[in-house]
């Protein structure tokens, strides 16, 4: 029972995070795929671990994919846009 609830929660949160990311990119007018590579890699970590859990594929391959996606996601953070500078002197 708990397994199904956790899987449903992960799927719902993953869908919400992808929707939020797409909406924020449209609001800011960002084009290109380079700035999306980091969130894509982090989403692939969740998808890999979810599939590994569902299909009992927990082993060196799922761990290896998780580590690879984590390193790639960290590497591609250099393509993320810098935050807007705000005046905090109030």
Describe this structure in words.
The model has no long low-confidence stretch (mean pLDDT 88). 68% of the residues lie in helices and 0% in strands. Helix 1 packs antiparallel against helix 2 and helix 2 runs antiparallel to helix 3. The protein is built from three helices and no strands. By secondary structure, it is mostly helical. The radius of gyration is 16 Å and the shape is globular.
Any chance you could write out the topology, listing elements then pairs?
Elements: H1 2-28, H2 37-54, H3 60-75
Low-confidence stretches: none
Q: Tell me the number of strands.
A: 0
pLDDT average, as an integer?
88
Number of helices: 3
- In whole angstroms, the N-to-C terminal distance is 51 Å
What summary fits the major beta sheet?
none
Which shape, going by the Cα principal axes? Answer: globular
Helix content: 55-70%
Give me the Rg, rounded: 16 Å
Order of SSEs: HHH
Beta-strand residue fraction = under 5%
Structural class: mainly alpha
């Amino acid at each position: 029972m708990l397994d199904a609830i956790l899987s449903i929660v992960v799927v719902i949160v993953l869908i919400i995070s992808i929707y939020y990311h797409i909406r924020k990119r449209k609001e800011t007018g960002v084009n290109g795929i380079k700035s999306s590579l980091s969130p894509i890699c982090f989403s692939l970590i969740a998808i890999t671990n979810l599939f590994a859990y569902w299909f009992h594929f927990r082993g060196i391959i799922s761990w290896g994919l998780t580590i690879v996606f984590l390193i790639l996601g960290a590497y591609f953070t250099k393509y993320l846009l810098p935050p807007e500078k705000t005046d905090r002197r109030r």
